[in-house]
Design goal:
205 residues, mainly alpha, Substrate Binding Domain Of DNAk, Chain A, domain 1, Substrate Binding Domain Of Dnak, Chain:A, Domain 2, 3-stranded antiparallel beta sheet, flat, ATP-binding
């Protein structure tokens, strides 16, 4: 969109050290004084690095040229809005792609193969749509990637299938063997082998 605008001036904010994506925070201030002079300041909040530029009222454009450009801007307002939506959708999708790739890299083998494969497939689709011009397709790919990405956490927290069942089964088997040994050592009252006996009448003695 900047290609359609008149450049009033440029400056470079340098001296900012390399940092992971999303870490640098640049604060840009636009200040127009009573004389129509525009002061633009850019400051990187982490390092404190700062650059500024002053734009005077003179733009090198005649009054007729200014009027013409204003009319052109108004006539292309709807088109510009669509461009803005497309750019914003691409930025959101690109950011989610970065988040997904970083999550897979950080998690490593902790992510189940099926979940990893699904996320990778959605990342591939999102990248393809970002390169295109279809706004709805980009948004759909972003939503689908978001859904797939949400499966990583729960999948990592799940215990491998059969692990608990096997352990529980082994524990029950041990308890069963212990119970058998205990029954052998301490037979229940009245139990055991049957012994034949005879009844003696004491009065006949």
């Amino acid at each position: 969109m900047a290609a359609d605008n008149k450049s009033l001036g440029r400056f470079i904010l340098d001296g900012v050290p390399p940092a992971p994506r999303g870490v640098p925070q640049v604060e840009v201030t636009f200040d127009i004084d009573a004389n129509g002079i525009l002061n633009v300041t850019a400051k990187e909040k982490t390092t404190g690095k700062e650059q500024s530029i002053k734009i005077t009222g003179s733009t090198g454009l005649s009054k007729d040229e200014v009027g013409r450009m204003q009319k052109e801007a108004e006539s292309h307002a709807t088109e510009d809005e669509k461009k803005k939506e497309l750019i914003e959708a691409r930025n959101i999708a690109d950011s989610l792609v970065y988040t997904a790739e970083k999550a897979l890299k950080d998690a490593g083998e902790k992510v189940p193969a099926d979940v990893k494969g699904e996320v990778e497939e959605k990342v591939k689709t999102a990248k393809e749509k970002i390169a295109g011009e279809d706004l709805d397709a980009i948004r759909k790919a972003t939503d689908e990637l978001g859904v797939a990405l949400q499966k990583i956490g729960p999948a990592m927290s799940q215990t491998p299938p059969g692990a608990d069942t096997t352990a529980a089964g082994a524990q029950e088997e041990i308890k069963g063997e212990e119970k058998k040994d205990e029954d052998k050592e301490n037979p229940p009252a009245g139990g055991g082998e049957t012994v034949e006996g005879e009844v003696v009448d004491e009065e006949k003695k």
